[in-house]
């Protein structure tokens, strides 16, 4: 009888020790797919999968010859229209002076005013086109929206990109410096947790300190059990991959 009691007690020990440890899976903290809102041909791809990039870094460029030409054309047009506006102002001043001296008619004055309004309107339209074309020129390059790691590359030099209702994904980035450990807990354990709470987790034998980012509000079915997703965000300084197993320590 004593032998059976010892065996039974020993069997309970690991369950007691690990009762509050939950299996989790690593996910990207922030994942974004990048494309260009303008059409063109890929000229350069400056990154490969696994590269770490900084915010604002140029990752990919389309051939921008056409967009640069449009900007130059707009700038030349604006210079011409500026001169026309100044000339229309000077002409209006002359006509107003002559009108006050009753040398010209009201019709002449109205025509001079209309000429100035038309010149100013054309200048405003040209400036608006310049902004649009500068934006298109800027959109011909993909820049990193934040410090990240490149996780997917689907673009090569010479590849045609067609902008449309369904943008063509060219690069996929994930935020560097942090990841998420996602676990699934039963309702009975959710009451012990709160957003922002600090938890310890283990990945490949290394412990990390993280904070609860989200607590699921609706259950999902996993392996025939209804559970709630829990995301714990934690900082990293080494390369980890999405899908790696982790152990989340709730105690």
Characterization of this structure:
The protein is of the alpha+beta class and 251 residues long. It folds into three domains: 14-29 and 177-249, Elongation Factor Tu (Ef-tu), domain 3, CATH 2.40.30; 31-63 and 141-174, RNA polymerase II/Efflux pump adaptor protein, barrel-sandwich hybrid domain (OB fold (Dihydrolipoamide Acetyltransferase, E2P)); 65-139, Orthogonal Bundle (Helix Hairpins). Helix content is 36%, strand content 33%. The strands form three sheets. The chain has a six-stranded antiparallel β-barrel with strand order 1-10-14-12-11-15. Strand 13 (220-222) and strand 14 form a beta hairpin.
Keywords:
251 residues; alpha+beta; Helix Hairpins; 3 domains; single chain; Elongation Factor Tu (Ef-tu), domain 3; 15 strands; six-stranded antiparallel β-barrel; four-stranded antiparallel sheet
